[in-house]
Write a structure and sequence with these properties.
Blueprint (H helix, E strand, L loop, with lengths): L4 H25 L4 H10 L3 E2 L5 E2 L3 E2 L7 E3 L4 E2 L4 E2 L2 E3 L9 E3 L2 E3 L4 E2 L4 E2 L4 E2 L4 E2 L4 E2 L7 E4 L4 E5 L18
Parallel strand pairs: 1-4, 2-5, 3-6, 4-9, 5-10, 6-11, 9-12, 10-13, 11-14, 13-15
Antiparallel strand pairs: 7-8, 15-16
Length: 172
């Protein structure tokens, strides 16, 4: 196969991309532990913070895996899709292509079949319900769910002020 210099870069890019896709897909077919899967994704370009990260059988953007950051203590269930790029369907004449980062904070739980359709930031300690479609930023320590994802509640209730009867603690 004869490839001239102008097409060489395209050819190299496409071969590397197909190898990455093959490895990404094989992580979902071959039985691999959730911890080993995180290490493989780290090698392939996904930024995963050092620490315990559990990743199920998910689909990660193979075009720009370097645009995805996952914080430590995070658990991502099976069937999730993380896309860091998208096409503008309202501007089809120009084929507008957008790219951005998906930043998942620390100690986040993402339930099964959640889809990230646009570049977003997920705050620390957030919980995202099963089957959610995330297309906007999620604040820390909140619970979100639905399609599109909507706020459900805060993860921790505000501290209650309970009046204490100080008469009980006075010495007799």
């Amino acid at each position: 196969m004869d490839i001239n210099k102008s097409n060489r870069a395209k050819y190299d890019f496409s071969i590397k991309r197909y190898i990455k896709i093959l490895i990404f897909k094989s992580c979902n077919v071959i039985p691999v532990s959730r911890f080993l899967r995180a290490k493989i994704y780290r090698i392939l370009g996904v930024s995963i913070e050092k620490g315990v990260v559990r990743i199920g059988k998910i689909s990660i953007d193979t075009i720009h895996p370097e645009d995805i950051f996952i914080g430590k203590g995070t658990a991502i269930a099976d069937g999730c899709i993380l896309l860091s790029h998208y096409y503008d369907v309202y501007n089809l004449k120009e084929h507008a292509y957008y790219r951005g980062q998906i930043h998942i904070g620390r100690n986040v739980y993402i339930a099964s079949n959640t889809i990230f359709t646009k570049p977003v930031t997920i705050g620390d300690g957030a919980i995202i319900g099963a089957g959610s479609i995330v297309n906007k930023d999620i604040p820390p320590y909140t619970v979100w769910g639905g399609a599109p994802a909507r706020f459900i509640c805060n993860r921790y209730k505000e501290e209650l002020e309970i009046p204490v009867n100080t008469e009980l603690f006075k010495p007799r």
